[in-house]
Design goal:
Alpha-Beta Plaits, four-stranded antiparallel beta sheet, 4 helices, 4 strands, about 40% helix, S8pro/Inhibitor_I9_sf, OLC1v1015554C1, MORF/ORRM1/DAG-like_MORF
Amino acid sequence: MKMAMPKFEISFASSAQSVWMLILTLYFLAAGNGSMAVTMDAYLVFIDQPNGQEIMPFAVQILSSVLDSPTAAVKAIEYVQTFTGPGFSAVLTRDQASQLQSQPGVLSVEKTKKFSLD
């Protein structure tokens, strides 16, 4: 007794459509991925002199109100400064910097500028 083998038909039209659908899907995923990327920049944050408090714990306290946790705040801080006025530098998104500007004790939040000596 012979067993019938299942027939598989490959249609060029359906294969071509599948390939084009795959190419278009990958294109739109790649294009969408770039527009959804979050840009992180360094910002200088000048603060009121904390009364009897070190600047670093005060900076962590302020950043924790904008970021997820004190741990995230510590990771975002690049350095603390006292020479030109109390403050710190932190890596933030534009939205986080905007939120930080409205926090009590924050005098200003400015995106850092990069200069090159060419």
